[in-house]
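note to self: dont lose this again. the chain is below, predicted strucutre after it. 234 aa total, dont forget to put it in the shared folder this time
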Amino acid sequence: MSQPESARPLIASGMARQLAAFRGALDSGMPRVGWKIGINDPAAQQRLGLGATLVGWLDGRRVLPQGQPYRPPAGSKPRIEAEVAVRLASDVPAGADLDDARAAIAAVAPAIEFVDAAKPLSPLDALLASDILHDGVLFGSELPLAAVSGLVAQGFPAVKLNGAPVRSGLPGRYPEDLAEVVAHVANVLAENGEALQAGDRIICGSYIDPFDIVPGDEVVADFGPLGLVAFHVA
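---
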């Protein structure tokens, strides 16, 4: 997976700003959590002139414990995405083949990413500098890698808002082999002076089109064999 030459200067500029913020947050005591895939919708990639997904970081200060309400930041426009997270058992260097990337995956879990539509979607450098709209993340319980196979074909994830179905998994958003995501993140990080480490998690992109949430909402995302994740908006 590679980006077109025309997009690379903006991507490089945006990644430099994004990762400077990441390093500053770590220096200030933020727990390291991992990374996120952004813009995995092929139509959105085409609109933005991309040839591959983007990579951002997960804010360790904004990991929502299961059972706790989500509190949107003041002035935000909160939306959610339904994703799958992988957790790594070992470092993954740039250039790792798919067998090594797959072997590094310790477990998978359902996840909800909270995004802020008030952040800029364009130009590319601003999108990346603001961490691809990221606000926070909720992880479900972990299972072995095999549990994630064929989710969309089975009709998952199926997401309800206040008891009514609103989204289900869309084809074409995920590779069948999540090792492709792991290898891609390792390569992107290496190009930008970072590395994929043991213990890192990666949320692998949204299975659904994001939707708005407001205080009082109840969201339940059924990932079938991966289990449920649910939260209330405070």
